[in-house]
Structure formats: structure tokens, C-alpha cells
């Protein structure tokens, strides 16, 4: 199948060009915003050649492609996938009801398109570091030219962010870049460097250097998106061509210099204080946490939301610990696990694991994550444990990264700096991650001969039928809007969109655990199988409000016994998904058969576990 046919398939299964509200990409993913989300055909898209997996993160739909994402993106553009990208400003809508999630989605949407630029600068710094190791002096013209080539991508970052933010907030991209030009204008920089007080019509202008900054320009463009909407309403149609751009510039630019820019700089400085405090007092914490949980962040593409803090650290300290050390540990762990699976798996699957492992060791982990880690039970746990331990070593020894690049063996030179021990400890971190992940995976992950699924199926457990845990509509596990469940990382099962708020036991057994908030119940069936019932998504944040429990740990239960009551209307009013998810832990997809029935009542058959 040629690239043209692949593009047509992708466009078809996302609902056609008219359904594509926006399209952009990062290093490994195509990222869509769609008008009608129901037209995103997950199963069909997974079968398209080159598509590793699909992810939904907030309002964004992602196709994980890998290293060839540029080719896919450019061909989609040739087929009109971006024809709706230029649209009238709506003022940068922001969901105040779910502000933290909205902020993260906003940061990811803004940073993802400019990641290639940031990595390009980082990779030139890798080349520069190698040249220095080969004997190039830092007083030579070759060094100076390579240095400003690499630094340009960071210094002029407000320009790139202005363009990306304008697209995100649906305002004029070129006007946004013009405002960035004001903040970086040489004459303004001269005023800042002079040390004298700066005033504009007797209003104080704070002397701030905006080169390499992130937060100020995002705030400025966000404000401008609302201003543009306002100007659009009040300016007569015949004068819009002249007055609209003039008003946007003459209002936004002074406010950017006097109020918004300094506010953004203050917010950045606050984050700087937090980062510095962590680095000074608990330097092992961030690399350990990142080494452990990076795969989960990558699953939903939310690791990109940390890029602004990474850049802030680089601009303030000249190095960063927010992502680099921990991602090095995690990425190499992914590669080690994939290579261990390659050694154990059957011949025809070995090549896939080898390729994914080598790619992960080079810093790109999606092929390993979706092609290996999530397909073989216990592998994710091995990766996370190895990443945490290697990250802990990196934190204890003070490993830092001097430039942005996908952390892996090929980019180890970004850890070369003033401290000669830094690169040595970075190499040791990578070796710990590789050896530990390979060893743990090889020992604890079992692979069936002649099958790509995991072979630690519980053969000693009888087949078992689950009855309905709630009245309502059955949906496949893949449609659950929580990657931890929909990916099958915990095991397989299905979900119910409940019409009534009573949750019942699906089996004979006992309560193994019940979460204090009542939103999750663990059951151990009489056959020894572990079952998780999770009521709603993110409902732990309700802190038990709306939930009433009728069992406790150790309670003996039978099919149809009442476990929990949940106030569905209360959950919905607070903005949470009410899906009731039922998972048989440590099962593969082949182990579970979902009973095909649209509407379930009490005691209806729901799932069958097949050994």
C-alpha cells in the first residue's frame, strides 16, 4: 500500500477532511482535533499500515507513528487534512471547571509542534560537544558559529511559541509573532541592559529579558485572542483591514511590556524557585519519579507538558533535571525490556522486539511501549522498577542534562559539561537501566511458545462467568477514556455505562479490598481470580462524596450482592465520567469474552474468562 492510500485511509477513519478541525505532529505522533469525536474509528485506524497505536488525551486524538511521522503528516496535508485549520478566532476557550487538565492540554498542544525545533538545537549541541572532545577550541570561529546555531532555537523560542499558541488559541499567528518581536527587539534589550528605569507614558516597564522564555508569550497570546474577538465585534467592517491589526498591536504590545510579560516572568521565577528547592534539598526525587512513571506519561502524550519547565531550568541554570536524567533511565529500561522479550519470544516476533528495543535505546520509546511493554504482562512493572532505580542513581549522583534531545545512548553527549563526572554517571545510569530491565524482564515475564500473548495465564483457574455489576449499556474496554484501563495494562474486561446507581458483585468470592472513597472495589473470586471494579473515571477526586458502601474487606459475597451505591447525577454534575469498569487482573485479551448484549440487567451474564 502506497502513502497516498494510507493517507486516504487515515482521513476516512477520522471522519473525513471536514471533520478535521486541526492537525499537527510532534516527534512520533499525529495529533488531531476533530469536530465529531465519535467518527474517530480506533479499531480501523490501528489496522492502517504504520500506525502503532491510538491515544485520546483530552480533546486531542493521537496516532502513534514513530520516526516516519513527518512523511505521514506531509502527505496528509497534500490530501487536504488541514483545510479547516485557519478559522475565525473564538478567543482561546478555556475550561475553568477543569483548570488543571485544561492547562496541561494547553501546554501539550502548544509545545508539541515545536519539539522538533527544540530537539534540532539540542542535537547540534551534541555535535558541538563531540567536536570539543575531538579538540575544537571554544575560541575558534567554528565553535562560535555552531554555538549560536544551536542557541538560536532556544533564544528565539518566544517566536515559535507565539505561532503555536496562536494556533491553539485560534488567533492571528503573524500578529502573535509580531508581539514576540516586540519582546525580543534589540532596542528593548538595550534599555534592559542599561540598568535605568524604563517607562512608557509614565507607566513602569519591568526590565525583563524574554529570550528563551515560555510563560510570558503564552499569556500574551492568550490575552490577544480575546482582544481580537472584541475588536472583531466593535470595528466597522469597512475599517477592519486597517484598524484591527493596528489595535491588536498598539494595545497588546504595551500591556505585554507593562503587565502580562512581567506577570509571566514572575510565574516562571516561582517555578524556578520550586525547581531550585527540589534540586538543593531532594535532588534524587524528580529523576526517580520520572524514571518510574515516564511510560504512563508517554501513553497519553502528557510528558510534553513538562517541556516548559525543562526549558526554564535550562535558561536559568544552564542545565536541567526535570526530564533528562529520569527519561534516560526510563527510555533505556524500555529498550532493555524489549531486547529481553526478543530473546524469549518466538522467531517471527523477535524482529519486532529487536527493532523496538534499538529504537528505545536511541530515545524513542513508543514502538517498544505499544509493541512490547503493554503486550506482555509484568513487562511494564519491570520497566518502571528499573527506571526508578536507575533514576534514583542519577539523582543521587547529581546527573544533569545540558541540552534537549531524546534521551538515549546516541544522545549521551548532551550530558557532557563542566563536571567530567556527569557524563560518567549518565553512562552508569543507562547501564543500570539496561541491565536491570533486561534481567527483570527475562526472569519474571513468561512468553508462550507459538503465541504473541503473555504466557502466565492462570491454567490452574477454571473458566468463569461474571454477571452484570450494574444496569446499563456495555462498551468495549478500548473505549474507556482512561489509558491505564483501555490499553489493557492492568488486564482485560469491559465497561458499563450505568443507568442506575447500584453496583453488584459479579461472582462468588470475598472482598479483597475497598478503596476508602468507595469508587473502587477489589474482589477475589472462589477460583482465586482477582477482579477490579472501578466506578467512574478520576472519581477518587470526589473524596467519597456520592458513594455509599455496603461491604468491607473480607466480606463474603455472591453474584448480585449489593456492593456500592453511587449518585450518578452528582458524579455527572461534577464533570466526571460514570463508566463502571470491570477488569480481571493479569489477563490477556484472548482470555476474556464480552457477552454481546446492548443493555444489561441485574444477574445478566456479562463476561466470560476463558483459559
UniProtKB/TrEMBL annotation:
Extract the CDD domains matched here.
PTS_IIB_glc (cd00212)
Q: Name one GO molecular function term.
A: protein-N(PI)-phosphohistidine-sugar phosphotransferase activity
Q: Which residues form the active site?
A: 26 (phosphocysteine intermediate)
User: What SUPFAM superfamilies does its record include?
Assistant: Duplicated hybrid motif, Glucose permease domain IIB
Give start and end of each PTS EIIC type-1 domain.
105-460
- Topology relative to the membrane: Multi-pass membrane protein
Q: Which residues form the PTS EIIA type-1 domain?
A: 482-586
Q: Which domain of life is it from?
A: Bacteria
Xref: PROSITE patterns: PTS_EIIA_TYPE_1 (PS51093), PTS_EIIA_TYPE_1_HIS (PS00371), PTS_EIIB_TYPE_1 (PS51098), PTS_EIIB_TYPE_1_CYS (PS01035), PTS_EIIC_TYPE_1 (PS51103)
Keywords, alphabetical = Cell membrane, Kinase, Membrane, Phosphotransferase system, Sugar transport, Transferase, Transmembrane, Transmembrane helix, Transport
Q: Which InterPro entries match?
A: Dup_hybrid_motif (IPR011055), Glu_permease_IIB (IPR036878), PTrfase_EIIB_Cys (IPR018113), PTS_EIIA_1_perm (IPR001127), PTS_EIIC (IPR003352), PTS_EIIC_1 (IPR013013), PTS_IIABC_b_glu (IPR011297), PTS_IIB_1 (IPR001996)
Single Gene Ontology BP annotation: phosphoenolpyruvate-dependent sugar phosphotransferase system
Transmembrane parts of this sequence: 102-123, 143-162, 207-227, 247-272, 284-307, 380-403, 423-445
Q: Which GO terms describe its cellular component?
A: plasma membrane
Identify the residues that the record assigns to the PTS EIIB type-1 domain, covering every copy. Answer: 4-86
A Pfam family annotated for this UniProt entry: PTS_EIIC
Q: Where in the cell is it found?
A: Cell membrane
Query: What protein does this entry describe?
Result: PTS transporter subunit EIIC
State the species of origin: Clostridium beijerinckii
Q: What is the lineage of its organism?
A: Bacteria, Bacillati, Bacillota, Clostridia, Eubacteriales
